[in-house]
Amino acid sequence: MSTVLLEEEMTDTPAAPARLLSAGPAAPGQEAAWEQFTKIPLPTRTDERWRFANVKDLDLSPYLQPQPVDETTREELLARSRGLEKAAGRMVFANDQLLSREVLSESLTRLGVVWLPLEQALVEYPDLLQQYFMREEAILGGQKFAALHASQVRTGMLLFVPRGIEIDLPVEAFHWLHGANSSCFPHTLIIAEERAKVTVVDYYESADTNAPGLACAVNDLWLGAGAQVTYVCAQNWSREALAFQINATVVGRDAQARSLFAQLGGRHVRSESVSHLRGPGGRSDMLALTVADNAQEVDARTFQIHEAPNTSSDLLYKNSLDDAARTIFSGLIRVDPGAQMTDAYQKVRNLLLSDDAEANSAPGLEIEADNVRCTHGATSGQIEQEELFYLMSRGISKRAAQKLIVNGFLQEVIERLDQPEIGARLAEMVQAKFAAHR
Amino acid sequence: MPTEELNQFDIDRTRGDFRYDVQYQYDAGTGLTHQTIDYIVDAKGEPDWIRDWRHKALDVFLSKPMPTHWASKDLENIVFDNIRYYLAGGQKPSRSWEDVPEDMKRTFERLGIPEQERKFLAGVEAQFDSEAVYSNIKKAVGEQGVIFVGSTDGLKNHPEIFRKWFGKVIPTGDNKFSALNSAVFSGGSFIYVPPGVKVKHPLQAYFRINAENFGQFERTLIIADEGSEVMYMEGCTAPKFETATLHSAVVELVALKGAKIQYVTVQNWSPNVFNLVTKRAIAHEEAEVKWIDCNIGSRLTMKYPGVVLKGRKARGEVISIALANDGQHQDTGAKMIHAADETTSNIVSKSISIGKGRATYRGLVHVPKHLKGCKNNTECDALLINSTARTDTYPAITVRGTGNACQHEASVSQISAEQIFYMQQRGLTEAQAMSLSVNGFVNDLVRQFPMEYSVELKRLIDLEMEGSVG
């Protein structure tokens, strides 16, 4: 008889949550992923895909399997799940447990829109999951963490928008991480059929902004011909969290994908985002803004793969770095043989606000077609003294002037979303992060 | 462009692609062991410290893995056991052209070296396989106290300067190939320019691989003392052999306070040479180092000239042109390590990929903490001529602190169809128009080369462009 059981009998309290690394798969059917996870070694410094990253910070041993939250916490977290004023639907999860689901309008459901927590979708739409669930391999170095996710995922959001259906208001999902050293595995799967149109916002939040924890998220977007999908991920985990995000966006003929990752929280955040431009005429806009301070490390890896001719991609990543923060941007544009008339752009800008901050940029190109226009640019710099002087001469304090300038710097990314309500919400979150600083 | 002129270039195409049977007095055989090292040291009559140094370097070489986690897989095709590491005629470098053995002289005459020297070169160091066979420096330069000799001569006769800097810019263990070079190096130049001396004319060296399966491992060390100026030019050729040949050089430059060094390379190895070269400079206070690097030949070139900006207001620059044709991979770039305040660096790279050629830019810019007023500018432009050509760009930029600025830009394009149409309409053939267009693309960089090199370069580009269209 195990010691855990013994303790349980003696104290009559629930068993302590199992450590993640000794927990095994979350449910039957996830064994293969677990085996893969245990087999793949942790990344090392010499792995080019982990260049610049602090790989010593990836120890998973402290983290525990997610535990259901109690009723009081549930009420509290629901109250704190403040999203947009108007949304087509909202799901709230805490520690990988669905807390609430405010239903999409009946008419949309009648039109064939499927919006379900993953575990329910697995029962009702197995074919859909079979076809789309984690079908794109993590190719930017995060295979181990993708396998961990696949072995641990319990819930998440499936949104299927059938042919020609447009959902006007955004669909939202909150994922809460609760309890010291807890883990969670948020999942978002969006499938937009031909000419379908939808906007989705994910919010990643921690109940306690100082609690250590692990989050390992996957979000995949599938765009059929002419579909338009906007995806926003507002990451605000606790400042002690270790977080992974793995994204794949598959863009069909003439489809338009737009994604924005706002990186605010976390101690060490690794984000991998791949756009497959698979159908001619497809376009992907890849946006990100990072506000990093203290000893935060935000490590973003991107890949724009032009697999078909006449496709375009446009990436804009902006990082503001304070204190001893580190950011990494490593992005690659790839143009496959035959993907003529590709138009690809990639731009990363780092604004360093402190002498201890460090920005690493590695923008890359791999071009195997000749009739293309591919450009990338990376800049690192600081606030212009003249700009600061101008504002200060108008009676604005130095701190306030700095914040204004940083805000203006990040605003360009938010404006590219072209969704004022979401933009305002993101700006608010950025403000909150500034306000909490020091 | 008249046809005769094009035909003239056609004759030039085989320039460098010829070979003479030479009886080598010293031949270390194939493969590399500690015995090979002893053989080389004995053959060259080197002092003991260099023997120990070489043995240690060999251990480092053997212990280091191939850099395959980022580099081209083609590296795996190098068979180190099949390479001959030392070949030499055995004679001392000759002072006058007449003393050079007849067969070697024929080789160099075909390459046109003495002719060039007569024109304006200050000194020539020609290396044939492992050893320098002909070395001369114009009287005037010698009188100024400039030392321009082979590396072996340098370490034997000028140890007080040589040992101080040798292996300090590029340590043995820097990478697998610098370790290999440190173990078996032979030939290359040693240059010392005394304080305040400005060498008016460029010093030139020519490297040539003559024997099949031969690895050439020259080692060059240039020291420009305070306030001095020097320009060094090197050219490389090899005949086409059936099997692959290895060239792995190490070049170290030291620019002391206020000194200026320009290092020009026109690399035109035959397309079966692995060209794996480590080049780095240290620039002290207010010194300037400029690498002008042009890669046209070889099967695989991996070369990233670097400058460590060690002193305040030091400046580093890399101007790079790469042309990759069928079966070629030009993996070139630059490294700028900022290590002092107000240091500036500039990298301009232009590459052209033709046919199935692949050109890669790989760069590193590092600005560490608490430096002020550092600036880097990087520009990479790639031109793709055919749909089968490939180009890659992999820069890596690390910036710390609030006092510095870095910017990087890269673009990939093709020749505009309108331009070609415009020129064809005026009576040029498509090939001529393409050639003109490519020359225009690199023109602003080519102009930075010494005049005769830029003429040579334009011709080489014309040659490479022939038959690549239509």
**Beta-strand percent range of chain A:** 35-45%
Helix content of chain B: 25-40%
Could you give the order of strands across the largest sheet of chain A?
Answer: 2-1-5-8-10-12-14-16-18-20
Low-confidence stretches of chain B: 1-15, 117-123
- How many β-strand stretches of chain B? 24
Oligomer: heterodimer
Largest interface: A-B, 41 and 37 residues
Main beta sheet strand tally, sense and closure of chain A: 10 strands, mixed
Instruction: Please provide the count of β strands of chain A.
Output: 20
Which term fits the overall shape of chain B?
Answer: globular
Mean pLDDT of chain B: 83
The helix-and-strand class of chain B reads alpha/beta
InterPro entries (chain B): Fe-S_cluster_assembly_SufBD, SUF_FeS_clus_asmbl_SufB, SUF_FeS_clus_asmbl_SufBD_core, SUF_FeS_clus_asmbl_SufBD_sf, SufBD_N
Family (chain B): Belongs to the iron-sulfur cluster assembly SufBD family.
Protein name (chain B): FeS assembly protein SufB
Domain SUF system FeS cluster assembly SufBD core (chain B): 207-441
Please provide a written account of the structure.
The complex is a heterodimer of chains A (438) and B (470). With 438 residues, chain A is an alpha/beta fold. Chain A has one domain. Helix content of chain A is 24%, strand content 38%. Chain A is built from 11 helices and 20 strands. The radius of gyration of chain A is 22 Å and the shape is globular. Chain B is of the alpha/beta class and 470 residues long. Chain B has one domain. In chain B, the strands form 3 sheets. In chain B, strands 5, 6, 8, 9, 11, 12, 14, 16, 17, 19, 21 and 23 form a 12-stranded mixed β-sheet that branches. A 10-stranded mixed β-sheet of chain B has the order 4-3-7-10-13-15-18-20-22-24. In chain B, strand 3 and strand 4 form a beta hairpin. Chains A and B meet through strand 19 and strand 20 of A and strand 23 and strand 24 of B.
